[in-house]
Amino acid sequence: MGEGLTADAIQDLVDAAEREGRARAAKSQAIFESAREAAGVASGDGIDGGETASASWEEAVGFVADRAGRAARLADLTILAQPGEGSADEGGELLNEVLFRSGRPLLMVPAGATADTGAHVIVSWNGRAECARTVAAALPLLKTAQRVTLLHVGEEHPDRPGLEALRIYLARHGIESEAVRREAEGVSVADAILAAMQDCGGDMLVMGAYSHSRWREMILGGVTRHAIQHAAVPVLMSH
C-alpha cells in the first residue's frame, strides 16, 4: 500500500482544478459574448417582455452534466453539440443527463449544421409516449417548416397511435404532412431511419429518446444511441 496524499498535496490539486475551471469559464464566456454580438442579440435576462431576443451569461459551481440537467428544466429548449471525438462532451454524458434530468426537449446539433435548418422536418414516429412528447414540443418548428414528413419503420403497433392518427393531430394544428413507411430489411431500425432521412432530403429529425432504458441502449445499442452518434442533421428529442 502506498502512502496517501498529504493535506497540502490535496489542496494543491483543488487549487489547480479551480484555476483550470476559472480559465475555462473565462474562455467560454468570451466565445459566448463574441457569438452574441455577431448575431446582434442584446445582453439581458429576457424578463422585460420584449419581442426581441436577448442572452445572458451564468456560471455555477459543480459537475457540468448535473447542473445543466437541472437548469434545463426551466428552458423551452436546450441546444447542445453532437457528442463525439474532439467534442467537449465526447462521451455524451452531458447530453444524456439533460435528456433524463430536465424533462424538456433538447436539440442536438452536429458540426457543420447551418442556421437555416428545419425547412424539411422528418418526424420519426413509433407511437410511444417519448415520441408524442417530442412532437408536442416540436409544434412551433413544424408550423414554420416548408415540408413535414412522418416516418414509421416496421409494422405499426395495434395499441399505439399510428401515422394516420399523427397526421390528423398535426392537421388540427394547421400542419400539413405526408406519411412514409419503411421496412428495416437487413438493417437496424436506427439505420433505416437515417437512410430515410437522406432519401427524403430532411434537414431535421424529430424523435423520442430512449424508449427502452438508457442502460439497455448503452449495452445492446439502440435507436437513440445510434442517432446521437451518427445523425448528420440536427435532432430534436426528449425523454
Keyphrases for this structure?
seven-stranded mixed sheet; 239 residues; 16% strand; alpha/beta; Rossmann fold
Strand content: 15-25%
- Number of H/I helices: 8
- What is the number of E strands? 9
Spatial strand order of the main sheet: 3-4-9-8-5-6-7
Q: Could you please say which CATH topology of the largest domain applies here?
A: Rossmann fold
Q: What is the level 1 CATH name of the largest domain? A: Alpha Beta
Low-confidence runs of at least 5 consecutive residues: none
Radius of gyration: 21 Å
Shape descriptor: globular
Q: Helix/strand-derived class?
A: alpha/beta
Give the CA-CA distance, first to last residue: 45 Å
What does this structure look like?
With about 240 residues, the protein is of the alpha/beta class. The chain has 2 domains: about 5-60; about 120-239, HUPs (Rossmann fold), CATH 3.40.50.620. The chain is about 45% helix and about 15% strand. It contains 8 helices and 9 strands. The protein has helices spanning about 5-40, 65-70, 95-100, 130-145, 165-170, 190-200, 215-220, 225-230; strands spanning about 40-45, 55, 80, 105-110, 120-125, 145-155, 180, 205-210, 235-239. A 7-stranded mixed sheet has the order 3-4-9-8-5-6-7, with helices on both faces. Strands 1-2 form a two-stranded parallel sheet. α2 packs parallel to α3 (about 95-100) and α6 (about 190-200) packs across α8 (about 225-230). The protein is globular and about 65 Å long. It starts with 6 loop residues before the first helix and ends with a strand. The relative contact order is 0.12. The mean pLDDT is about 90.
